[in-house]
């Protein structure tokens, strides 16, 4: 058995256990993955366009953007990187990360080239990659509660406020 087969088996051994506890629905997980792939494509094209200049900061930002594209493809769509032996293992590790960790990583990766060279190319090229981080960040917040539980919480807070108010009024009298 080759090392690539071992890595693939390690990646596919228990994906349900790691993804079931993050609270993301299947369609939201696919939305995040598709946003990551589109963000990788926009980073790659804008990074390449950004490198066609003589300004060294623009070239550095373009190279960083192409690195962002590679990392996004590696984490979100490892089938695009079939020529790399460790792609499935990296993708499996990225799937084990919590959504807030992915959010911080993707947003930080996308913000660095913009801070390095603030141009329209870097802004628009990193916008979708940053949006991918925002989507993962929103999933880290969790599901929205139902109206009944919010009404119960509101009712309990209202009762506690009334009890505090009556206790304060009795203490003054």
From TrEMBL:
User: What's the domain of life for this entry?
Assistant: Eukaryota
Membrane protein topology class: Multi-pass membrane protein
Q: Does the keyword Membrane apply?
A: yes
Instruction: Name a single GO biological process.
Output: vesicle-mediated transport
Q: Write down what this protein is called.
A: FLOWR protein
Pfam families in the cross-refs? Cg6151-P
Does the UniProt entry include the keyword Lyase? no
Q: Where is this region: Disordered?
A: 1-20
- Tell me a GO cellular component: membrane
Tell me which family the UniProt entry assigns to this protein: Belongs to the calcium channel flower family.
């Amino acid at each position: 058995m080759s090392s690539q087969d071992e890595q693939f088996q390690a990646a596919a051994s228990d994906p349900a256990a790691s993804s079931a506890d993050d609270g993301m629905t299947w369609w939201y997980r696919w939305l995040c993955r598709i946003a990551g792939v589109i963000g990788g494509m926009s980073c790659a094209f804008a990074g390449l366009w950004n490198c066609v200049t003589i300004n060294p900061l623009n070239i550095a930002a373009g190279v960083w953007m192409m690195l962002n594209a590679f990392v996004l493809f590696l984490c979100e769509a490892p089938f695009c990187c079939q020529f790399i032996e460790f792609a499935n293992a990296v993708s499996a590790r990225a799937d084990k990360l919590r959504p807030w960790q992915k959010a911080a990583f993707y947003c930080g990766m996308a913000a660095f080239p913009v801070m390095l060279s603030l141009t329209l190319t870097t802004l628009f090229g990193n916008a979708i990659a940053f949006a991918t981080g925002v989507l993962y960040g929103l999933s880290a917040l969790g599901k929205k509660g139902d109206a009944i539980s919010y009404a119960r919480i509101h009712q309990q807070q209202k009762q506690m406020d009334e009890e505090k108010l009556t206790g304060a009024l009795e203490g003054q009298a």
